[in-house]
Amino acid sequence: MNRLSIGVQSFDDGILKTLGRIHTKQDAFVVIADAKAAGFSNISADLMFALPGQSMAVWQDSLHTATRLGLTHISAYSLIIEENTPFYTQYHVAMEAKMRGEDQPLLPSEDEETDMYLYAVSYLASCGYHRYEISNFAKDGLYCRHNDGYWLRTPYVGFGLGAASLVGECRYENPEDLQSYCRQAARLWPDRFLRADAPMSAEEAMAETMILGLRRQEGVSISGFRAKFGLDLWERYGNIIEKHVNNGYLQRKGDRLFFTDAGFLISNICLADFI
User: Fold this and answer.
1) Quick check: 27 pLDDT over 50?
2) How far apart are CA 201 and CA 60, in angstroms?
3) What digits encode the pLDDT tens for the residues 208-237?
């Protein structure tokens, strides 16, 4: 192993408590120092923004701390509110209160979230980190290879509860609960541990190529798409591409089709068109 990724999330104890994390910022400092002492020179940290109670100053401090620690890779994710979590309930209670005219801000506004993301892009670039994917930044030559592989649909195998895999045009997924996982392991081992879903159709594979590939700074290879599917990219998605090119969200340069800076900000809206 030559690379370690650490789920720091924030270097602010108040934010960590809000997130329900059991570590402190001091714990994160210790883990990073221990990783360096153990010989890891390629260390990544996950950081989160647009969190409850998080100001721009608090977000900036986390970014500044991460770069001062000499981390080689930083993943910056905005909060996704998942169903069946305590915060999901809190959020909807606050939204209902807001609709009644009671001002109970729970999250930064969309404009504040955008400003936080743009600050990360600008600041990390000034510190020598390249944005190679919407949420991932790395020093020269230190892109996360397995991470990049997901967006390029490189085959991979995952082990453990709920782990997903991609082999050929089949996606596999292991059970999420331990008893089912163990039963399946006993039944299938060693012939085949993974459960196979139906192979993806060509249409599904093409859509996945677009929605994963466009997350990368380099975007999608036009010749690579043709070689893979025997179809011109514009022949299949011409109307969608032209729509977002005309709106200033997509750009073509040579063999690449990729998001502009404006496109990255609303990428999910654009990517949904390819499904």
Assistant:
1) yes
2) 44
3) 999 999 999 999 999 999 999 999 999 999
Cβ atoms < 10 Å from Cβ of 231: 13
Q: In sequence order, what are the residues at sequence separation of 6 or more whose Cβ sits closer than 8 angstroms to the Cβ of residue 15?
A: 9, 51, 53, 54, 58
User: Is the Cβ–Cβ distance between 84 and 138 less than 8 Å?
Assistant: no
Report the candidate in 197, 194, 226 with the shortest Cα–Cα distance to residue 209. Answer: 226
What is residue 160's predicted lDDT score, i.e. its pLDDT?
85
Q: How far apart are CA 264 and CA 241, in angstroms?
A: 15
Residues pairing with 60 in the sheet? none
Structural contact between residues 87 and 81, judged by C-beta atoms closer than 8 angstroms: yes
Residue 126, judged by CB atoms within 10 A of its CB (0-12, 13-18, 19+), counts as exposed
Question: Helix axis angle, 56-68 relative to 110-126, nearest 10°?
Answer: 20
Largest CA distance in the chain: 60
> Of 17-26, 122-131, 171-180, where does the model show the most confidence?
122-131
Q: In order of start, what are the domains of the chain with their CATH numbers? A: 3-143 (3.30.750.200), 144-199 (no CATH), 204-272 (1.10.10.920)
Closest by CA to 133, choosing from 124, 63, 175, is 124
